Amino acid sequence: MNFIGDEPNSIEPLWRYFKTERLIDFLITGELYFASAREFDDKFEGAVAIVSPEYKIDPRYAKTEGTEKAFEELKRLIKVSCWHRSLYESDAMWQLYADKWKGVAIQTNLDKIKKSIQPFRLNPKYAEENLCVGNVKYIDLTKGKLKVSMIERFWHKHTAFDWEKEFRIGISLRLAEEFGVNIPEHGIKVKFEITDLIERIHLGPFLSNADIEKVRKIAIEKGIGDRVDISSLKGTPRYT
Fold it and tell me: How many angstroms separate the CA atoms of 222 and 240, rounded?
């Protein structure tokens, strides 16, 4: 496991918010989807600078570099799982990534990820692929030009996104392609031992009773039924 940037706090809580059916699939299979960086909606993914629409000529680009095509290919070859760093659950994350409060979240930390993640191979006869992990660093891309390696770009984002407080696990398949291995165009599924990974399962505040029962049933079957909590946002507010 390679660290991008400083080694993260190994016990800081990490959250992953799911639509219910995706969490259920993960509990059943133990396989977590790592998306190709090309699949991200963020048009600034991997950018080294942001040019203001007011500028016709940006001095940072007086010389044109021929690396854009190579980086676009790397976006296909890097597969990423994104997590949220926080001591507490996040209303914004429930809205954006958990079907507007109707989903489920799991909580873990880096120590548990290290213990639970299984070696990934594109094919059983291939060597194990290396993992890269680290906290995303947020910088103002309007004021400078990012000068890091191409792989490190995936752990740097514009300051406008710092509310995400993102932690990433990445698998680069660049070397595999150089050896002639056929690389999936989209994402890959990586195996975890869920009993080692999951510290808590948090049920969304608007999750239906039927989905609550589904999640609880599977959690019990997997031996982690005692780790299921209900979101604090499900609580009743009091004003007096």
Answer: 42
pLDDT tens digit sequence for 134-173 = 999 999 999 888 999 999 999 999 999 999 999 999 999 9
Give CA–CA dist 108/14, Å, rounded. Answer: 5
**pTM for this entry:** 0.91
Q: Where are the domains of the chain?
A: 2-234
Name residue 188's beta-bridge partners: 34
Query: Would you give the distance in Å from CA 2 to the centre of its chain?
Result: 16
Retrieve residue 181's tokens. 């291995």
Backbone angles phi, psi at 118, to 5 degrees: -95, 150
Chain centre to alpha carbon of residue 172: 14
What span, in angstroms and rounded, lies between the C-alpha atoms of 86 and 96? Answer: 16
| Whether the Cβ atoms of residue 36 and residue 171 lie closer than 8 Å to each other | no
